[in-house]
Predict the structure.
Amino acid sequence: MLTTNARRARRVAGWAGVVCAALLATACNSNGTVASGPVTGPTTPPSSAPATAPITGPTTPPSSAPASSAPATAPVTGPTANSTFLAQGQDINGTVLHMPVCATGCVLSGDSTAILDKMTWTTWSGSEAVGTGIYELDGCNPNCAAGPIYHVPAVVTLSSPVKACSSSGTRYFWTRATFRYPDGLPKALQGENAPQNPWVFSSVVTAAQQSCAS
């Protein structure tokens, strides 16, 4: 009898423990200690600032300065090596000479008392011409028709071209001649009888100016 009661008491106690455990579990859950679930969203709210717009052009504005309007360089005009001549006998309307060899003589004066002969030109540009040869000079003693003629080695420099106009086009003529005599001048051509040096072709200057004035 006592053994039976003891068994019942232990059985009741066991059931009571089960019930207590269940009650304890419910009480713990109601205290909010349930493990949290996995995070399924951002822990901080998304930013509301707008995204930066992409750069689609230059960072500095284009220049508003107008393009250069400078005029083209004007063509060069004036005497050139091919447009400059020696007027024989100082006549711009007569025979014109360009780098002449003067094999039969190139007359400088209107009266043929000064002639270039056997010339070699080392320079012939639009500003000057330089050549070497023989300068034939009439001593005009007792007169120019009687001579005598002197053949003097000389270095000749022609310069100061002047513009002349004609129906055939524009030309330039030398108006100044300078002479150098490596062997000197003969005695008869020294002093007051010396040839002009430098020699300005005044008749060429006048004729050229008149040709372009009309």
In short: The chain has two helices and ten strands.
